[in-house]
Structure formats: structure tokens, C-alpha cells
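REVIEWER CHECKLIST
Item 1: Sequence provided? yes
Item 2: Single chain? yes
Item 3: Sequence as submitted:
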Amino acid sequence: MTELANARQIRLERHSPSYWRATFDHPPLNIFGPGTIPQLEEVIELLERDRDVKVVVFDSAVERFFLTHYDFLAKPEETTSLPSGKTGLQALPDMLARLSRAPIVSIASIRGRATGVGSELALACDMRFASREKAILSQWEVGAGLVPGGGPLARLPRLIGRGRALEVLMSADDFGGELAERYGYVNRALPDSQLDGFVDALARRIASFDKQAIADTKHLVDVASLPSDAEIAPEWDAFIASAQRPASQTRIKKLMEHGFHKPGDVENRLGHYVGQLGA
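Item 4: Structure as written out by the authors:
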């Protein structure tokens, strides 16, 4: 097992030279914040540079949480001071755009909540597979007065169509694995007991193929399907601006008072609670 140096939130494991796993392990909630960004950046750079890797699976070691929302307890300047990435996009959207275009196959294996950033990372992956019983996907931001910032406004309509994308975004509600599959939010929702075996078998199958064929095929699909960086760029600016508005700060404060950012019912049922903020 090979791990990133000083990794506290992401474990990188090479099952073989061609098949890697990146596991989010930041208990209790797998919250994504400024401290996670350099660790994810290192993973993306390794995927871009390594000559042998063909497939990577993103999963979680934290029960009930795949990867959740951004860290609203972090100081704003910890985020706004981050330099732009290689694409010229801001740090998080840059890494997600590069993941989408990397010459390897990326798979999100979703067990637990993929909320906010978790949903955005899953959308940036090439494929998404979910536990039928335990996966929950959501873009919760509008319910808290925020604008999603990691690319879902550009990616979701292409993936599931305009109407369903607007339902996901404007309802700010939770979508279980079965409904996410029906909408095309994920490729498949499998019984929880079958998820790991299915994803592992698929990853190993892809890892046995020729890398050049994988890279060339993916590139041509990317040309036909991925949003441009110019379409993604305004989202992060809109997220940062929305987080500073009094209306969103009031809503986030209400969530905090109920237990947001702590293990408990708010994090377990975030879609329900954001739906109550304006009541």
C-alpha cells in the first residue's frame, strides 16, 4: 500500500500499477475544506503523470459519508488565497476539470452522502456507481442561499437534462441511490452488498486493457461531452460571492445552531433541514 505523505484525509492505494484507489478518510463527516485541496491536487497530479495507471476508484472509509460539503468553519481567506490551478480555474474546479480530462478512467463508488463537493467530484468522474440502500447525492447549496461552485451547473444538464438538473439544484434535496439511477445522476445503483465487488471487477477489467486505447477513446468522448473551462469558471466566483451575502450567512447560522458540521441529524438529513430554513 502506497500512501501520500502526511495524508490525513485521502489515502492513495495501488492495488496494481494500473489500478489505484483514492479513499476519503476524514471522520466523522468527510467534510472537504482548504486542507483537503493540496492532498487532492497531489492525487490528480499523480494520475496525470503516471505512465502505468489506467483506472482510479474514489471511495470512502467513513461510514455514511462518501464526501460532503465545503468547510464553512474554515476562514474565508484560507480559500480565497489559494492560487489558480493549471487550467487557470480556481483550485477546486481546476482539479475536477483535470480529473475529467485525465487519460485514465475515474470511477466514484458512492456509499453514504455525496453532498456538495462530494456530488461535484462524483460528477467529474467518468462513471458513478452507488449503493442502492446507502447512497445519497445532493446539491444542497441553493437551499442555504448559496450557488454551487464546483462545476455541477455545467455538468448536470449535460448528464441528466435541463429539467432534472434544475430539480436537483433548485430543490436542494436528497436523492437516494435508486432515484439517482433513474435520473442518470449515477450509472447504476446496486444492492449495497454487491457494490464493492462490482466496482472492483469493473476496475480490474479496465486495468487489463491497453492504456493508449483507453486514453484515445476517453479523449474523443470528452470532446463531445465535457463543458469547457469557460463554462465552469463563473461557478466558483458565484459560490464565494454567495457565501458572503447576509441571507446565506443567516441560513448557514441557523443550520449551525441545529448541529451543522457535527455528527447528527442535520448532516444525516441535510436536504430536509435546508428545506425548513425559510419556513
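Item 5: Key structural point noted by reviewer: Residues 1-6 have pLDDT under 50 and may be disordered.
Item 6: Recommendation: ____
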